[in-house]
Design brief:
Blueprint: E1 2-8, E2 11-17, E3 24-25, H1 26-33, E4 41-46, E5 49-52, E6 56-57, E7 61-67, H2 71-93, E8 97-104, E9 107-113, H3 120-136, E10 141-146, H4 147-156, H5 160-166, E11 173-179, E12 182-185, E13 201-205, E14 208-212, H6 229-245, H7 250-258, H8 262-287, E15 291-295, H9 302-315, E16 321-324, H10 353-364, E17 369-375, E18 380-388, E19 396-399, E20 417-423, H11 438-454, H12 458-475, E21 485-488, H13 494-507, H14 516-526, H15 545-548
Parallel strand pairs: 1-7, 15-19, 15-20, 16-19, 20-21
Antiparallel strand pairs: 1-2, 3-6, 4-5, 4-7, 8-9, 9-14, 10-11, 11-12, 13-14, 17-18
C-alpha cells in the first residue's frame, strides 16, 4: 500500500492505494464529496488543466472539482445528455440524423430528421429509451487515435461529413467516444458512463426537442422551460438565411473559402443585415415611434448597429438624436452596492430614473431640457451647459444594458417606444453534434476588439468575462422577449476571419494563467476553421469592422 495526500476543493484528504494500482480515478474521489456539491460533479482541475473523471491521479496534488453549477461543468453534462439522446434516437428510428442546433428556453434545441413531425408519443419513447441507457450505465470509452485513423473509422461508419471535417483539424490527435457500439467525436470532455446523467427532461417544441439538464438551484430538478417565441423565430429566420447562402456548417464554409467563393457569401450576409435595418427603420417611421431603445450584451456590435440605424432613419426623413444614459448616473455615494460591497454600476438604480424620465417626457412634450453630464473623476453629475429640444421628426435613440427594462422609461407610454434587442444570436456549428455557443463568438469578438482598440490583453478580457456574463444574465437576458424587434448581428463567415486575429492572442496565454483553460478551449474548436485572410470584401460599415478595424462609422 502507498498513501496519496490530496487537497480536494481546499480540504486535505488521504487515500491508501494498492501497490498494484497506478493511482486513484477522479470519479472515486468525487464520490466522497458529491453529497455536499451544489451540482452534479463532471470534471476536475489539476495543475490548471481540465481532467475527465476517468483521469487517474498518481501523485500528491490539488484538485478542484467542477459541477453543473459551473459553466465548464455543465457543458460536459449537456454533451453527455446529447450523446444519450442521439443513441436513443438512433435505436428508435434506425440511423436517423440528429442535429444539435442552439440554446433555447433554458435548454438545448435539437432536431430529429424523420419523414414526419415528431409527436408527444415520440418524446415519451425517446425519454423512456434514454432512461434505459442511463440505468444500464454503459461505459463511455475514450479512444485516442490519429486524424487519419479517425477519418477511416468515421468513413467506415458512413459518417462522411464528420470524416471530412477532421481533414481540417490542425492537431493530429483525435478523441473518439464509443458507447454501446455507438461512436462519435466531440471537441469537449465527457463523463465515464451514461449513469452519471441523473437529472434531465425533454420537451416537444415546434419541429424539434428541447433537452434540459439540472437547474442551478437544485441538481435534482431539471431546468425550467421558458417560452421564447421571438428568439425562436430569429433562429428560424437565420436557418433560412443559412440555406439561402449555402453555409450551414464549418465544413461548407471551409470549402467556400478554399474555392475562393467567399466574396458572394460576405456580400449576401451584409446585404441581409442592411435589408433588416431598413425594415426596422420603416416600422419606426410607419408607427411614428418617438423613443428607440437598444439593448445588447457585450460585443454584439451595438455601436455599429446604432450608427447604421441612424442612416436608415435619415433616409426615411427622420433626424434621430442620441442621449447617453451614462450622464444620468446618480452621484457616487448614492450608487447601489453588490453582494460583495462594491459599487454596482450595472444596477438600474445606478441611474437617476426620476430625472431621466422627467427629461424624456419634457422632450416628447416639445420642451427644452438642460442635458446633464456625469464627471467620472468626481463621481457626480455636473452641468454640461448644453440644451436639447427636438422636433416631431426626431426620435430619441437610447442605448444601454437596461434598454428593455420597463423601469428605465416607466413614465413613457408604451405606444411611444420601440424596443430593439441586438445580439450575435447564431453561429454555424462544427457539425451536427458539436455546437459552437454564441457566447464564444462574442467573447472572441471582445478579445480581438479589446486588444486592437482598448489595450487589453486576451488574458485580461477572459478573466473579466464571467463578471460581464453575470451582468448580462441579470440585466439583459430576462428582458429580451420584451423587444419589438430582435436583430441577429452574427455574420456566418466571421469566425474564419477572426481566427487569424485571435489565435496568436490565445496562444500567448501561459499555462499557469487563470485564463488558460478558457483560451485552450477556444483554440480547440478554432482549429477546424480555414482562416479567411482576405478581408477586402468586408465593407467599412460592417459590424465585424467594429472588432477587426477598418470601420468608417465607429471611432
Amino acid at each position: 500500500m502507498r498513501n496519496l495526500e490530496l487537497k480536494v476543493n481546499g480540504d486535505i484528504k488521504k487515500y491508501c492505494i494498492d501497490k498494484n494500482l497506478e493511482g486513484i480515478k477522479l470519479e472515486e474521489i468525487a464520490r466522497d464529496i458529491e453529497e455536499s456539491s451544489d451540482g452534479i460533479i463532471t470534471l476536475g482541475i489539476i495543475k490548471n488543466k481540465l481532467r475527465e473523471l476517468s483521469h487517474v491521479v498518481k501523485e500528491d496534488c490539488s484538485i478542484k472539482f467542477l459541477d453543473t453549477t459551473d459553466l465548464d461543468g455543465y457543458r460536459v453534462y449537456a454533451r453527455v445528455l446529447n450523446f444519450i439522446f442521439m443513441m436513443a434516437c438512433d435505436d428508435l428510428f434506425k440511423d436517423v440524423r440528429v442535429t444539435v442546433e442552439h440554446s433555447l428556453s433554458g435548454g438545448l434545441y435539437c432536431e430529429v430528421h424523420i419523414d414526419r413531425d415528431l409527436n408527444e408519443e415520440d418524446i415519451k419513447n425517446i425519454k423512456c429509451k434514454m432512461k434505459e441507457i442511463i440505468k444500464n450505465n454503459y461505459k463511455i470509452e475514450k479512444i485516442s487515435t490519429t486524424r487519419a485513423e479517425a477519418i477511416s473509422i468515421f468513413k467506415e461508419h458512413k459518417m462522411i461529413e464528420k470524416a471530412e471535417l477532421l481533414r481540417y483539424k490542425e492537431y493530429n490527435d483525435v478523441k473518439i467516444y464509443k458507447c454501446n457500439n455507438y461512436i462519435d467525436h466531440f471537441y469537449g470532455y465527457m463523463l465515464p458512463s451514461t449513469g452519471y446523467i441523473k437529472t434531465f427532461d425533454l420537451k416537444l417544441y415546434k419541429n424539434g426537442v428541447i433537452l434540459f439538464g439540472p437547474s442551478k438551484l437544485d441538481k435534482n430538478i431539471p431546468r425550467e422551460f421558458k417560452p421564447q417565441p421571438k428568439l425562436s423565430n430569429i433562429y428560424r429566420e437565420s436557418e433560412i438565411w443559412s440555406n439561402l447562402i449555402g453555409v450551414d456548417k464549418v465544413l461548407t464554409l471551409n470549402k467556400i473559402i478554399e474555392n475562393k467563393e467567399y466574396g458572394d457569401v460576405i456580400r449576401t450576409v451584409e446585404a441581409l443585415h442592411e435589408k433588416k435595418l431598413s425594415q426596422i427603420a420603416d416600422i419606426i417611421k410607419e408607427q411614428k415611434k418617438r423613443i428607440i431603445l437598444i439593448a445588447a450584451p457585450s460585443s454584439s456590435g451595438k455601436t455599429s448597429f446604432a450608427h447604421r440605424l441612424c442612416i436608415h432613419l435619415r433616409v426615411n426623413n427622420l433626424n434621430p438624436v442620441s442621449i447617453s444614459l451614462d450622464d444620468y448616473f446618480v452621484d457616487r455615494e448614492h450608487t447601489p452596492v453588490d453582494e460583495f460591497g462594491n459599487y454596482d454600476f450595472e444596477s438600474i438604480y445606478a441611474i437617476n430614473l426620476e430625472q431621466f424620465n422627467r427629461d424624456l417626457k419634457d422632450l416628447l412634450d416639445g420642451k427644452e431640457i438642460s442635458l446633464p453630464k456625469f464627471d467620472f473623476k468626481q463621481g457626480k453629475q455636473i452641468n454640461s451647459n448644453k440644451k436639447l429640444k427636438i422636433d416631431s421628426n426626431q426620435p430619441i435613440i437610447l442605448e444601454g444594458i437596461h434598454g428593455l427594462n420597463p423601469l428605465l422609461t416607466s413614465s413613457i407610454p408604451n405606444d411611444e417606444k420601440f424596443k430593439i434587442y441586438l445580439s450575435a444570436l447564431t453561429q454555424i456549428n462544427l457539425d451536427d453534434h458539436n455546437r459552437i455557443p454564441t457566447t464564444d463568438l462574442r467573447l472572441i469578438r471582445r478579445i480581438v476588439r479589446d486588444y486592437n482598440f482598448r489595450g487589453y490583453s486576451a488574458e485580461t478580457t477572459i478573466i473579466n468575462w464571467n463578471s460581464v456574463r453575470r451582468g448580462e444574465e441579470k440585466n439583459i437576458f430576462p428582458y429580451q422577449e420584451e423587444a419589438d424587434v430582435i436583430f441577429n448581428s452574427a455574420c456566418l463567415y466571421e469566425l474564419a476571419v477572426l481566427k487569424k486575429y485571435v489565435t496568436p492572442l490565445l496562444e500567448s496565454i501561459k499555462d499557469n494563467s487563470r485564463a488558460y483553460i478558457e483560451s485552450n478551449r477556444l483554440l480547440k474548436f478554432l482549429q477546424y476553421f480555414v482562416a479567411l485572410e482576405d478581408t477586402s470584401d468586408i465593407p467599412s460599415t460592417s459590424i465585424l469592422r467594429e472588432f477587426i478595424g477598418g470601420s468608417k462609422i465607429v471611432d
